[in-house]
Amino acid sequence: MTYLAKSPWIIHYDASSCNGCDIEILACLTPMYDVERFGIINTGNPKHADIFVVTGSINEANREVIQNIYNQMPDPKVVVAVGICACSGGVFRECYNVAGGIDKLIPVDVYVPGCAARPESIIDGIVTAWGILEEKLKNKVSSPMVSDHDHKAHHKHAQGGAQ
Amino acid sequence: MINIVWAIVFILVAPVVGGLVAGIDRKITAHMQGRVGPSILQPFYDVGKLFEKEQTVVNETQIFYAICYVIFMIFTGALFFAGGDLLLVVFALTLAQIFLVLGAFAANSPYSYVGAERELLQIMAYEPMVILTAVGMFVATKSFNVSDIASSTTPVILLIPGIFLGFLYVLTIKLRKSPFDISTSHHAHQEIVKGVTTEFSGPSLGLIEITHWYETVFLLGFVYLFFGFNPLIGVVAVIIVYLLEILIDNTNARVKWQLVVKSSWLIAAIVGMVNLAALYYLSGGVP
Ligand code: SF4
Fold this sequence. Notes:
The complex is a heterodimer of chains A (163) and B (287). Chain A is an alpha/beta fold. Chain A has helices spanning 20-29, 63-72, 84-88, 119-138, 149-155; strands at residues 9-14, 41-42, 51-55, 58-59, 78-82, 98-100, 110-112. In chain A, α1 links the parallel β1 (9-14) and β2.
């Protein structure tokens, strides 16, 4: 067992979720579920994170934010999509401003369905993510740099960077 | 006077002790919050993990500064445990801290900048009290050498209780505990992300963690100096002081930097100066 699985630090991003799934993620940190006993820390800093936990169906405003966070995370990293919105777009998938599931933008490793996903299943998803992290470390998988080329060219955005 | 053996013992043992202290700290903190908490070996797992990660930096010089931070912190602690000059120890400590600030300034990131600025303010806040502590030790034991102070039979704590209280106050800043964890903290991420360490990742962040362990052991050694006349009381005092720091950490919210600087200078000026003046008066003028 590598140290990665004993100390998975997460970054949580709300990609236009209804806040239901986010409250369930925060519930995992409370004394009731206490995920810190597994060494899980909610870092809030992509450069320190190993697991990217995303909730909600992406809208146009946070496409780039998600890609930027993903690109800034050092390898090995995994993405966990929490809630049916993050998995497929859920009830919002037909909306004009919604991209759909997180996997439309970045590679997703674990899908945690549910509306809202229960804390138990979120913890289960993150535990599954450890195994994938270890596998990625063993196989030295380097994650791709993601970007919305068309989108970027259209809006003349700068390349994703530290800021 | 300089005892190389103790310096080597410090270099080898301090990371283990410091890491365990950090682990016990997290466990006690968790229990205070009604949680189970991670294993007490968790800090070692964290650092092990950081060394397994990829090194991504904005600016290569960051790594250089992180390494300088480690080297000078080890130098500070080794000099202290070898029984060197206390003033030199204090200056080396400041230099080490400045390297961390430079490392944070090396990356062009707003959060890193805010953290670095706050770190500088913290240094400004605790420095007068730390120097006063060294002076107080000198007045009490007539020596600046750690070896003399530690082996002195004078009950230092009884001569400079005010300075001890002042030192405890700034110790909270040095250990990065609430309410003074303004420059970097695991709890402030909505505000400054991770402050000074925002732009460090992977192995260089691991180095910074290890440096914190060295620093903790060195600071606890500093607390011990007040009780050097009786090793048993000394060790008990060190443990009580650290438990007190954990309690303070868990019962206080972070304050603004203005309060940190003002209050620590005020404390240094009041308890530190009054204590020194009383000591001079009692010993009948300048020793
Ligand atoms: S899955 Fe349900 S609870 Fe979660 S963000 Fe979507 S609508 Fe809200």
